[in-house]
Amino acid sequence: MKKIILLILISMIVLPGCSNENKKEHYPIYEGTLVFKTVENDKYKFLVLQNISKENLENGDLDNFIELAQDQSEASYYFVDKKDYESIEIEERVRITADFNQQESSPPIRTVVSIEKMDE
To answer: What is the CATH number of the domain that holds 67?
Structure first.
């Protein structure tokens, strides 16, 4: 009887620890339009806004884009790799999965986990 109780206790401790292996991270996903891209200190960076009119996109500059970003909760800079930087153009719509961490600035700076172009 003591062996059965001991086996049950060990199972209760060991099995729950093994079940966490299949948990996946649920990173936040953001959608928007790429309005500006730059390279600073070998780091590739996009500025993505949720909403922007065609007129603001065509006639805007970085200062205008940053001003628009102040009113958009999900507007952000994103660090991307060189391949994504070269393959995605300004004015394209993107869906970005970002890391949980972000640098506190206005707009914030996030790191891309994955990025894809969206069909318009």
So the answer is: 2.40.50.140
